[in-house]
Amino acid sequence: MTGRNLITPAQNTWCPGCGNFSLQFALKSVLGELEQSGQSLDDVVLVTGIGCHAKMADYLDVNSFYSLHGRTIPAATGIKLANPELKVICCAGDGDCYAEGLDHLIFAAKRNADITVIIHNNRVYGLTTGQYTPTSPLGFRGRSTPGGTTELPINPLELLLASGATFVARGYTRKMEQLRSLVKEGVLHRGFSFIDVLQICATYNNMTAYYDERVYNLEHHDTSGFEEAFRKAREWDYNGDARIALGLFYQRVMPTYEDRIFAHPPDNTDREKRINEILQEKM
Amino acid sequence: MCQGKIPLNDISVLIGGKAGDGINSAGLTIAQMFNHLGYRVYLYFDYPSLIKGGHNFAIVRASDHKIGAHLETVDFLLALNNDTLAFHTGMMHPATEIIYDAGNATKGIGTPVAVSEILTAENAPSIMGNSAIIGAFAKTAGIQWNVIEEVFGRHLPKETQKNLSVARNAYDVAQTKRVVPGIGPGNLPVITGNEAMGLGLIYGGMDAFISYPMTPTSNLLHFLAEQAPHLPVTVVHPENEIGVIIMALGFAYAGKKTVVGTSGGGFCLMTEGLSFAGQSEIPVVIVVGQRTGPSTGLPTYTGQSELHFVLHAGQGEFPRLVVAPGDAEESYGWAARAVQLAWKYQVPAIILGDKTLLEGTYSFDVKELEGYRPVPEIPGGELVTGQGYGRYRLTGSGISPVAFPGTPGTVVKVSSYTHDEAGLSTEDAGIAMKMAEKRMKKGFSLLEEIDSLEAVRTYGDRSSPVALLVWGSNKGVACEVAGALGLRVIQPVVLSPLPLRQMKEALSGVTRLVSVEDNMEGQLGILLAQHGIVVDDYLLKYNGRPFSVGELREKVMEVLK
């Protein structure tokens, strides 16, 4: 299939000014570029969780698996294991992936599953109308924490580096060129790609001014150095006042989960013959 | 089984010792010796939830016809420790032959075996102590040495010669007391319920098995993991049961017939995925091995208290297949069918096992499987791919022809939301209703197919007005009791969708229905009551231990008095 529109007839219901539009645009243009360079979009699967981000499954006209809250990664891992020819991209939310589905995220990094995970990190629950998430700053006043949160945020980049992810990046929805290139590199990376995307929630958590003041691009940064990546990842802790680095923090090529798990015979193996052999052994 | 015959040759052996003594494998070796003498065998393995120490025992029973339950007494008691003698005095009869490790158990009567002296003389490790006991047992039971050689050669591939030497030492010293005669050449495969289930899943076309270990289905995972290198089956052990079920749905979405294994606690975590499977119409087979609950309960003991849980698990309404096989052959046949039916109707299928069945060991007779033809695979209608493909196309049967991602020119969208034919989320009232009805239609289509299969089985005296109602592993014990007392047995194998027509036929002429279940509420009875079928008496057991034949016979006689 070539040159298709990539947008479904579904009515778009994101709020005006929502950061999801930027990510939709980035994904759409990356898919278009991939198609031009020979990647069939028939072999692309988009997996989403539940939340505003997840509507991407309804809006992009590619194969999609609209999963449950927090459950993008197990589905994506299963799809990739079942058919390694497929390019599997997860769009997940910060509440979705860092709260409900954190265990899966760590395991995907640990396994180096060849999937790409893009976190729409708006640091608030939008669809459930404004509660704090694992990356909301200390004291965040949400509807479940009217007096302000009493816990510090997690730093997802630090966590993912420690978990063994082989591609760790951070983007920002207002830096489109960089975002596109990070998504594209992430999809092309062989192994587990993780991109935390700072995204504003126009209705519940508009941090545009905060981010615009602090973000800068990683330059002259050696992406093969784990220690340096870790140091850069810890520069901003998602809470205090510090400069916020954007770009590719770390990349390393390692055998993937699929490489390691595939050792079984082809699909046309005679099952009945093997069953009879097993039964013979049990006599 | 279920011929109603009183067995002519019926021998029971109990072997007991500490965890780590290799009691289960010793039991299996003895079962194989009976198998090589032409007997049908059944093995019940009882063990606490620990790795070393404690008290383990196996009851091996051999008979000249098919069996699936243990008796309340044993003819041979093989004790590797004192506990075996202390705990099982109630299972001895006047002629029970006792054989014991003279160094670890003290009895005074029976045959002592100088296990530690033999091991020292042969320079053998302590785990081989059970080979000495087996050697002494074989001689006591008049079993020819060549049977031991053959069985050890086939089933103890590691250090066979040393095990044989250890056994020979004890064999030469012991006296023959009660001769167990060879009754024929009929050597059948001897397998556990888990293994039968696994082989059936393979036969049914399973491409992937995904599981987080939990008794009593861990051994299904182990068995399939060992077989995977020789078969086109991917076996994965993920981070937890939520990961298991969602990963399985990913596999199935991408075109692979996928099965998961768990027990009640793990199934709790899977229920969001089960409901998702119902909504998204992604087929998945879930093997639920029941143990004693609630919660962690008695992890290594049996139970049948998850029937209503699996029937109702998951939010919302959607059709599901629930089957409860009662022996090794049914486990094989219905496991295969569950894979095929789940796939054909695009519904979740649950195979309910219990610890007695899954970790029990049975002679496996392939001749019984002649009725289990593969389910023809013609889902929904013609698959039209390309632009405009609708994963949820409305059809008369409710089944939409399925395409997988990677199909040229075709976009395949699945969703946990209420969706339209293309798989896009919708809140439209009319579409919501149509899609709910579409899913239910699949349930009716499935019931039609179930009705063409033997979904309710009857045994014993089919004209008896008294019927024992059973499900799962109680089939074996109920058949023997019914055989002895001239009663009818009714066993629904499919529990959802309930094959009501077959159930009513099976009940024709029954005036007294006695439900035998390993739970406290009489869950099958409650299910039937919802369909207007009334159970008259309940015989319920809920201490984690299966009924023995004599125990159930007495209870049945009591209610019929």
Can you walk through the features of this model?
The complex is a heterodimer of chains A (283) and B (561). Chain A is of the alpha/beta class and 283 residues long. Chain A is built from 11 helices and 8 strands. In chain A, strands 2-1-3-4-6-5-8-7 form an 8-stranded mixed sheet, sandwiched between helices. Chain A starts with 19 loop residues before the first helix and ends with a helix. Chain B is an alpha/beta fold and 561 residues long. In chain B, strands 6-5-4-1-3-2-14-7 form an 8-stranded mixed sheet. A 7-stranded mixed sheet of chain B has the order 9-8-10-11-13-12-19, sandwiched between helices. In chain B, helix 12 (328-345) links the parallel strand 12 and strand 13. Chain B is globular, with a radius of gyration of 25 Å. The two termini of chain B are 26 Å apart. The model of chain B has no long low-confidence stretch (mean pLDDT 95). At the A-B interface, strand 2, helix 3, helix 5 and helix 11 of A face helix 7, helix 9, helix 10 and strand 15 of B.
Helical percentage of chain B: 25-40%
Global shape of chain B: globular
Major sheet details of chain A: 8 strands, mixed
Instruction: Tell me the distance between the termini of chain B.
Output: 26 Å
Radius of gyration of chain B: 25 Å
Structure summarized in a few sentences:
The complex is a heterodimer of chains A (283) and B (561). Chain A is of the alpha/beta class.
Please describe the topology of this protein.
The complex is a heterodimer of chains A (283) and B (561).
Chain A: H1 20-36, E1 44-48, H2 56-59, E2 63-66, H3 72-82, E3 87-93, H4 94-100, H5 102-111, E4 116-121, H6 156-163, E5 167-172, H7 176-188, E6 193-198, H8 208-214, E7 215-217, H9 226-233, E8 244-251, H10 257-261, H11 271-281
Chain B: E1 10-19, H1 23-36, E2 40-46, E3 53-63, E4 74-79, H2 82-87, E5 92-101, E6 111-113, H3 115-122, H4 129-140, H5 145-155, H6 160-173, E7 190-192, H7 193-203, E8 208-211, H8 218-227, E9 234-236, H9 241-253, E10 258-263, H10 264-280, E11 284-290, H11 307-312, E12 321-323, H12 328-345, E13 348-354, H13 355-358, E14 361-363, E15 413-415, H14 429-451, E16 456-460, E17 466-469, H15 474-485, E18 488-492, E19 494-496, H16 500-507, E20 512-517, H17 523-529, E21 537-540, H18 549-560
Parallel strand pairs in B: 1-4, 4-5, 5-6, 8-9, 8-10, 10-11, 11-13, 12-13, 17-18, 17-20, 20-21
Antiparallel strand pairs in B: 1-3, 2-3, 2-14, 7-14, 12-19, 16-18
